[in-house]
Structure formats: structure tokens, C-alpha cells
Amino acid sequence: MGAAEYRIPFADRVDALGAVRRYVADNEDTVMRVLTEFSPHRTARAEIRSFLATLDGAEEEIRRVRPGCVPRAAVFVPSNIPLYSYALHVLVASLYSDVITFRPSSENKSQMQRLHTLLAPVHRLPIKLFELSQRKFVTGPVREADLIVFTGRYSNAETIREGLAEDQLFLFFGNGINPFVIAPDADLARAAEDVTRIRLHNSGQDCFGPDVLFVPEGRTDDFVDLLSEGLASLRFGRNDDPDVDYGPICYDSALVNCSDYLVRHARRIRYGGRIDLRSRRIEPTVLLWGFDDKIPLEEMFAPVFNVVAYPSARLLRDRLSSPYFSERALGAMVYGSDPETVKVLSKRHHTCVNHTLLDAEDGNRPFGGFGMRANYLSYGGERHAEPLLTSQAVARNIPTAAPTTVGGK
Fold first, then answer.
1. Shortest CA distance to 306 belongs to which of 319, 295, 315?
2. pLDDT tens digit string along 107-116?
3. What count of other Cβ atoms lies within 10 Å of the Cβ of residue 121?
4. What's the rounded Cα separation, in Å, for the pair 126 and 97?
5. Which CATH superfamily is 11-174+374-397 part of?
6. Could you count the other beta carbons within 10 Å of the beta carbon of residue 69?
7. What's the rounded Cα separation, in Å, for the pair 136 and 155?
8. What's the pTM?
9. For the segment 61-76, what is each residue's pLDDT rounded down to a tens digit?
10. What fold does the segment set 180-360 form as a domain?
């Protein structure tokens, strides 16, 4: 089907998305009050900007990608970025999905309920919030869906996928190690500033945060000093304070996991390491590792910086090409000039040079890497790890069909 012949399956809903976009822009303070219950003020502002930009690009995305009609879609909303996820996986998807049922994470159920209560009367689309257990969601809407979108842990994704039929399209959005590499000629001050910005995004509770930073052995001390100096200047406070740099940790599991991690590796700490359970504050913490140390690269929703001193670019490239990194390949960042390392990473990662993954993200374009534990598409009994955009996955895998009348409008 040529671009000139394509018709958006539910083109009348474009106006509904425009109405939501205007509502959020005109009532930003109302939306901010909901978002800042879990996110710092600056993160919430950035999430609203991403939400608006994604809706601005929605019609162009659908006309460019040309998905067919999906009768039923089921969406597992992640525990963070609730408003942005509502745009990515619900509102934009409504242009080609007749009925969408979504289930919030137990962590942000109340927040998602209030956002949906605010926005549903504006768009008036067949978008349903499912409030029962995940088990009932899986045995109900998921079993009936043509498209399933899941954001979360790989093990949970596999459990759900194994119960699906071959003609159900399943998209898994997970997380990666997201290595941050500093080349020998890098501007250390810029690298320290940018890695602080992405690692402290949402107080460290974001899947784009790098789990490991590789720094040349000869420059490691200088980098750790710059990084620590910058972290010492950051301000902790309430999420609704626009002047704070980071706020309380939302998730009990993050507090427990981070506490355990820092206790086990206390001798590696070079800066920070304090946790205040009453205020739920985790002080930004820098740990220093040798290249041959066995580093437990566990994803933590916490402001933890694992700095690894590497002896040579060749050994670093071998490490980054290993199966462990490859199967978790999502994004990577390289600062300075090291084209060979960029080449190695780019084979499997979405690789940014001298800017962060946050800077590169575009809600209307495919994103991710080629690591099966980071993100994959499953259809017809086969899995494929690749950068994902839901509309594109639908266009390539679900046979084109005329719009149905399952949900009415």
C-alpha cells in the first residue's frame, strides 16, 4: 500500500489526541500535582514535554509507518513515566487499535487512575483501565488481545509470552546495562555533568540510567573527583520543589536492594553511601572498581555510579562484545573520540556520542537495541530483539484489516 493510498484506521481520533494535548498544556499544574507524588519536579516537567512532543508527532508517525487495524490491545503500564507511557502505548496506539485495555503497575496504580480520570473525559476513546490483579488481566484482556505491550522484567515477560497464541503480537520493553564509556581524550567535566543528569533522572529511578561507567585508568581519579564534586553540590528535597535536584525513592524494593548492595560493597565506595530511611533519601554514591573485579551489574532504581577503570580500549571492546553485555544491549553512550568502540557498541546498542540516551529519545521513532533481555518482539512463534516502535511492529507483523466496531468511536 502506497503512502498516498493509506488511511489511518481511526482517523477521527486524531482530534481527540489534539484535545488531550491542549488539556495537558493548559492544565499543567493539575497534572504536575499527580506526577510529583512519585517524581521530582524537574523530571515531571520533562515527562510532560515528552508527552506533548509524542502527541504532536502522532499523526505523522502513523502516516509514515502505516499500521493496519488492531481490534484489541492490552498494555502493561510501567511503574515510572506514567503520563509518557499513556501517550506512547495508549493514546497513539488508539489511532490504529479499536479497543485498548491497560493495567497500571501496583506501584503507581493510584497515580494512573487519577491521570486517566483527568484525561478520559477529554478524549472519550474506548480506552479501559483494568483494576484487578495481573493474573486476571493475563487470563482476560491479554488472552483476547491481538497486541500485547509489556514493560518490566524479562522473566515476567517470558512467563506471559509463553501463554500466548502464535498470532498474538507481543512487545517487550525492558532495560539494559546502558554502558557509559569515557574515551582517553574526553572532556571529563562534560562527561561528569551528563552522566549525573541521566543517572539522577527521576532520582535514579529510570531504565536509561547507566549501570556502569568505563573510565581510562590514567584519568579515573580525576573523573571520580569531578563527579564527586558535582554530586556534593546537588540538593535533595520534596518532589514538588522546583529547585531540588533529586528527591525521595518511591519504591521499597529500591531502598532494600540499594541498601544491601552498598553494604556488600562498602569498601568500593569513594563518595556518598548514606541512606536515610525516614526521608527515603539515597545519597548519590560513587563506587570504584578494577577492570578484573567481578562487578554485580544489577539494575537499581537508585542514584548509584559504578565506575570501572579500564586498561586499554581493546580490552574494553572485548568486554562490551561479551555475551553478557550483548544479550542486555539497549543503549550506550560514548564521550570523547573512540570510533572503534562506537562501532562495536553500535552493532547491538542504540549508541549516543557526546550526548545521553535521554537527549536521543523520540517517542515517535524506534528505540532500543538488539539484546533479547532488553527488548524484543514476539510473533508467529519467533522472538526478534530489535529497536521497537509499536506502530511499526504492528505494520510489519499484523495482517492489514479494515477497522472493526468493537469499541464504537
1. 295
2. 889 999 999 9
3. 9
4. 9
5. Aldehyde Dehydrogenase; Chain A, domain 1 (3.40.605.10)
6. 20
7. 19
8. 0.94
9. 999 999 999 999 999 9
10. Aldehyde Dehydrogenase; Chain A, domain 2 (3.40.309)
